[in-house]
Amino acid sequence: MPSHRRKFLKRAAVTGSLVGLAGCQGDGGDATPAETQTPEPGVEYEEVDAVSWLTLSREDNPGYYEEAQQAMGMLEEIGFQFDESVYESGQWVNTLFAKDYDIANIGWSNTVERLFPYYNLYFSFHSQYAGPDGGNFSNFVSDEYDQAVENFASEMDEDARQELAYRCQEILARNVPTAFTTHPSSLIAHNTEEFSGWDPMVGEWAYFNPTTLKSATRQAGDGTVVFATTAPPEQYPNFMSHTGPAAVFLHKLNYDPLVQMSTTGRPIAEGAAESWEVVDDTTIDVTLRSGMTWHDGEPVTPEDVKFTWDYATEHGIPYLASDIEPYESSEVTGENSIRFTLSNPFAGFIPVSMYRVPIIPQHVWEGVTAENDLDHPGQWENPDMTGSGPFRMVNYEPGNRIVFEKHADHYAAGEYDFDSIVYNIYGTNSTAVGDVINGNATFTQGLGYTDWQRAQNSDTAEAIENPSIQANGLFFNVNNEPFNDVLVRQAMAYALNRTEIAQTVHQGYAQPAKSPVAPANEGYHNPDVAAYEFSLQQARSLLEESGFRYEGDTLMKPVDWEPTTEYVSVSD
Q1: Apex CA 391: angle with CA 440 and CA 466, to 5°?
Q2: In sequence order, which residues have a C-beta less than 8 Å from that of residue 492 and are 6 or more positions away?
């Protein structure tokens, strides 16, 4: 790790004299050589401290790790040094939520419901989630942004909501709480000998979801679909304590949500809800599919739906907190109907909340805490996994495999051309893709280029590149100097060569990023926000505008440095 060197200098040089910055690699397309100003006379300077940088280990996420190495190298060209903390996922998550870093490079998961960019725009940048334990990893606080993103979340008109999403992205682009780097493609592969006809879903989970699984046509084999994955589910199998996208998608096999998602990311009436009607901004009527049964044969009722939402609200499910939060109450209005009342208008209630929160049986979960002397139902070990989903979990071997068998009485059972599905956990993507090629597994996802290319070159597998809705970036902790200055953050954004990162880290299977909303999200991506095209000279100029100076290639700042620009309004 770089050491924290600290020295104090007093300069009497001529203001504005020009010196070259040693060790620069290129000038980002600038036509003139890089030039910098010497320290101001009479101003006491000190060397800029090393910046603490949090990243995930190569084993846990090679993409994050490699992007971190590339980005740090680029930012060193404008004089920054770094103390890098490389952690495995558990410690990384704890440090991330403690906000114990100057910069953290992370990305959002590439799941289909993120096409409604509530998480990317609201949860990640609203001031409500700044501070310890919140998901605003930049600690960005702006009344202007809060108002814009609240209006976005509550706007029920689609065109007006798009304009508000654009405004949110513009505020973020001008203030740069996060310097976005790439939108990596989702690299996925499937075996072609046993199943055909796949209709992949947008995003990372192209095959492992109830909608896509219906599209597979069996050509051979014993009727078992095997998903080869390196992602063990987090806090599984208790639904009330689950975390992470893997557990969310596993629960979609065992439990029915009210709505399912089309392969292009639109809510469709293929879940437990036969239909729904938005009565007004805070009222939604839902009609349940008739004749549904739980895995144990009991009928699924609107009382179960009401119980689920009341139960989740009462006890809380941290991973689904933002999905549950808009729910105020519900009322059973008929034999198969229920009315939801929201505490405030939330445009994402149908595409996000009703998709992510499945129905659980009242006759199984009611009384669990008292009967088992628990503080929270999420503490229930070996929970009864009775659900109403198209498949039922019949075997769980932590760290190894999870087996589901078809629920023969499910309303869509006849649409699945196989009888069981296995979530098989591998140690490496290389082994997983090898089993896809040799026929021991049906599909895999989350591949690096090398493994994906092996499938592409195989006669028994097909490799696909799915449109990415993921966004990776550098989250600046704006509570820490010097990242409390917009100009410093903009300077770092200019110093990143995103095209080079996309080429070297992702072998070209990524797009340079300038927004938390990827271009593949055509409904909400703002194409007109500032891109901060690579320019070391522009980066240095912004640092100097903020008061920084260079001594040779050493970046210096006034001892009494204060931020020049703490916020840039889009209304100015």
Answers
A1: 60
A2: 75, 78, 80, 176, 179, 474, 476, 539
Q: What is the DSSP letter of 298?
A: P
Residue among 17, 155, 19 nearest 554 (CA): 19
Measure Cα distances from 481 to 126, 176, 413, 566 in Å.
Answer: 21, 15, 58, 11
- What single DSSP character describes residue 378? G
399 Rama class: left (phi>0) / alpha (psi -120 to 50) / beta: left
SS3 (DSSP) at 393? strand
| Each residue's pLDDT tens digit, 205-236 | 999 999 999 999 999 999 999 999 998 887 89
Beta-bridge mates of residue 404: 393, 421
H or E element: which one contains 404? strand 401-406
Instruction: Specify the pTM.
Output: 0.84
Asked if 177 contacts 145 with a C-beta cutoff of 8 angstroms, the reply is no
**Which DSSP string do the residues of 25-54 spell out, in sequence order?**
---TT-SS---EEPPPTT-EEEEPPPEEEE
198 contacts 215 by C-beta, under 8 angstroms: yes
What is the distance between the alpha carbons of residues 509 and 517, in angstroms, rounded to a whole number? 17
Residue type, 537: Q
**Per-residue pLDDT tens over the stretch 518-532:** 999 999 999 999 999
Contact 136, 97 (CB under 8 A): no
Q: Where are the alpha helices (DSSP H) in 256-353?
A: 302-315, 321-324
Six-digit token string for 559: 């001892």
| Strands 103-107, 44-47: pairing kind | unpaired
Structure tokens at 174: 């001008």
Reduced to 3 states (helix: H, G, I; strand: E, B; else coil), residue 284 is: strand
- Report the C-alpha gap between 551 and 36 in whole angstroms: 9
Instruction: Yes or no: say if 327 and 225 are a contact pair by the CB < 8 Å rule.
Output: no
